Amino acid sequence: MTQTAPDILRIAVAQLNPTVGDVAGNLAKAREARADAARQGADLVLYTELFLAGYPPEDLVLKPAFLKACEKAAQDIAKDTADGGPGVIIGTPLKRKSGTHNSIVFADGGKIIAERYKLDLPNYGEFDEKRVFQAGPELQGPVNFRGVRLGIPICEDIWGDIAVCETLAESGAEILLVPNGSPYYRAKIDVRHQVVIRQVIETGLPMIYANQLGGQDELIFDGASFAIGADKTLAFQMSQFEDAVAVTTWKRSRVAAGAQNANNSDHWVCSEGPMSKIPEREEADYRACMLGLRDYVNKNGFKNVVLGLSGGIDSAICAALAVDALGEERLRTVMMPYRYTSKDSLKDAEDCARALGCRYDIVPIFEPVEGFRHALTQLFEGTQEGITEENLQSRARGTILMAISNKFGSMVVTTGNKSEMSVGYATLYGDMNGGFNPIKDLYKMQVYTLSRWRNSHVPPGALGPSGEVIPKNIIDKAPSAELRENQTDQDSLPPYPVLDDILECLVENEMSVDDIVARGHDRATVNRVEHLLYIAEYKRRQAAPGVKITRKNFGRDRRYPITNRFRDRG
After folding, report:
1. Catalytic site residue 118?
2. DSSP bridge pairs for 143
C-alpha cells in the first residue's frame, strides 16, 4: 500500500540538559520529553547531538561498556515508539564495523528505522572528535518518516564545506533536521543563524536547528534552538539558557505548476512555533556564568559552596553568581583580614554578604601568616621582604578555604578574572585554590560591566534578590590585592582598559605586536604584557576550570606550550 504523504507535520524540539555519562538519567529525560511532546500532539521529537551519552563525552567513547549502555538506551526508547506516539531522532555513539560514530538513531513504530552517522568531525577549538570517533563511511540519503523525506545532517555537517546538505536536497529531502551540541560564546547565535541561512540558500529547504542546553565542565550549551524557513526568514526561535520542549507545526505548501523550486514541487512552511526574545549581551554573559556554575556544582554532587569575600569586585560578582545559581543558603562567604585589609574592604564585604543574604564569617589570618614568617625566619635571613611574604597571605587564605571545604564538603569557588589569569596576577595554592571559576573567561572591565548590569537586573531563573547586590563602593574603588600598604593593581599592571585591549588582541585575535602598537599602545607595554602572558602559562595549567564566554578561552581553545621562548619582536 502506498503511504499518503501528510500535509501537516508536528515536530517537537527537545532542548534539554543532559549529563555526560548519566545514560539512564538522560534516557529518563528523553522519555519525559517524548511524553510531553505526545500530549502536545507531536508526530516526531528531535533531540540534540549525542543526547543519550551527554556531549561532549570525550574519552568515555573509548570504553566499550559506555558504548554498550548508550546503544541499549537507544534501543529502549525505540521500543517506546510502539505505542503509536511520536517518532524520535536521538543522538548516541554507535560502534559499527566502519568504526565508532557520532550518530543518530531514528525510531518509529517500535523499531529503529534508520541510523545516520556524522561525516564532518570537528577538530578545532573546544572540539577533538577525531580523537574518539570515525567519520561516517558514506553520506546516506533522507529518511522516509510517515511519508515525509527528512534529511538529518549532524552539527558540523552543516558548518563545513563537504556539501552534506546539498546532497540530501538532491536526494529528495523535504526538511533538514539538525541535532547540535554548539557551545556558547558571545554573539554565537548570530553565527549559527548565518550558517543555517547559507545552507537554506544552497538547498532551498527549511532547516530546524536543535541545540543542547546546560553546563559541561567549561562549556556552556545555551539552547536557543531555531529554524530558518525556505524563504530565509526565522521560522521559530526557542529561548536561550532555558530547557523546553517546543512543538512546531509544519504545513506543506503546494507550488503551482511552472513555479520555480530547485528541489521539490512543493515545500514546507512553519505555521506555529515559539518566537522567544534572545537576551542582550550582558544578560547572556551573566546567565552563561550562572548556568555554568549551577550545573558544575549540581552535576558533580556538591551541596554548597564557599568563597573568600575580600571586599573586591571579583569576589563580589562571584558571590552574586553563586546566590543566583544556587540560592543564598548554599553559599558561605569568608572574610580573612590581615594587617593590610582596609576598613572599607571589611565594610564592603559585609555589606555585599548582607545584600545577598548569604552566610558571612570572619577568620583573621594574622596568626597563621606570622607563624609561617616565624618558621621561615632563619631560612630567609639576609633577604629582603617582597612578593614571597605577600604570597604567604594569599596561601594562608587558600589553606583556610580548603580546610572549610574538607570539613563541610563545600566546593571552593575561585574568583580570578581573565585579565589576572592572563598575566599571572594570581598566587598558586593561594587565591587560585578552588574547584570552579565562574568568571575565568571575563576580562576585568567585563566584570565591572556585568556587576553594574546585575545591580539593576535580576536574570530569569536567578535565586538571588533584586536591587544593589554589589555595593557601589566595590565598583567605584581602585582594585587592590591588599597584600601591602596602599597597594593597587595599577602599581604593577597597566590600567585595566589598556591591559584588556592588549590581551584581547593577543589572546582572542592572535595579533602581532606591531599591529597592536598601531592601535595606539606603547610598544614596551605590549612587549611586557606578551611576556607576562607567556610565562604565566604554567599557572593556568594548574587553575580551576571555568565558564567559557569568549571565542578563545584558556584551556580548551588556547593551547600554548609552557616551555616557550618565542617573543614577537617584529
Report:
1. yes
2. 150
